[in-house]
Each structure stands twice: as C-alpha cells, then as structure tokens.
C-alpha cells in the first residue's frame, strides 16, 4: 500500500492515518501512515492485524485501558474516541487521538476511523517530561460522556440519549475552537 496523500487541511490537522476494523474477525487494517506510527512498520499496511500488532507502539501505561475500551466498543458498536501515548522508534513520546465508529450488532462488520497526532497540545514549557502532561479537562469530560452515552444506549432512554449527544456536541465544539489553526 502506498502512502496515502491527505488533503493539506487534514495534514495540517495532524492526521497520521486511517484504520478499518473487521469486528467479527477481530482484525484491523491500517494505511501506511497508521501502520508506521502505530505498529512501527509501514510494511504492515493493508494487512489484517491483531490489536496487539496494530497498536504495538502504544505506551505501556496506556495500553490496558485503551485495549479495554476498544474491546468494549467492538462488542457494543458505536463511536470510539481515545487519546493516548505512543513511543516512536527513537523512544520519543507522542500523543495520538483515535476516533472512529464501529457497527452496532446487526449493522455490519466493519468500523472505520483515524489517528491524529495531538502531541502539540500536550507539550508544556513547565513540564520536565515533554511527553507527558495532564490531559485537558474537556477531553477527559468527553471521554466520560462517551462512556455515559454507551450506558445510556443500553438503557433505551431516548431523552437521555438526546441530552448526552447534545453535551458531546457542545464539548466537541469547544475543543475544536481551541485547536490552533
């Protein structure tokens, strides 16, 4: 698979690459940008990969909670968002936002998403370790709202679903406005 050339606005936004997941097979296919950054080998692009290989560069401290969240969304379907650290070949820590959507049971078998480099948001002049900074409070709120939305979906309460979706939309608007252009 050759390097996907993203439109300039997407490259400027930090898009690293894309993924497609076959939920039933438990395998993900990465484009070459995602394969290089996440699995450590662009040569794995286009090949069905296990979660362990597809996310081989995930930071050890983030690995467990990210895998747990991915496995839960693979079972239930719906939107997926997680921001975590990865280690590059040189050992440098980078932050990655993984966003996508997986099909709900009975809706199909393939989910799709992107990886976006968000390292610039985590760099702090006062931090001794530029690879680690406290997560943004609105991003933490978004993660909690996504988890709440998954629980509300299972409850079957349409008004609660509408309210949590409105909250997620508003948090997303605030996060987008704060990103550097």
UniProtKB/TrEMBL annotation:
Pfam families: PAS_3. Keywords: Transferase. It comes from the Bacteria. The keyword Transferase applies. Its EC number is 2.7.13.3. The keyword Transferase applies. It comes from Methylobacterium symbioticum. One of its GO terms (molecular function) is protein histidine kinase activity. CDD domains: PAS (cd00130). Gene3D superfamilies: PAS domain (3.30.450.20). This is Sensor protein FixL. Residues 55-109 form the PAS fold-3 domain. The gene is fixL_3. InterPro entries: PAS, PAS-like_dom_sf, PAS_fold_3.
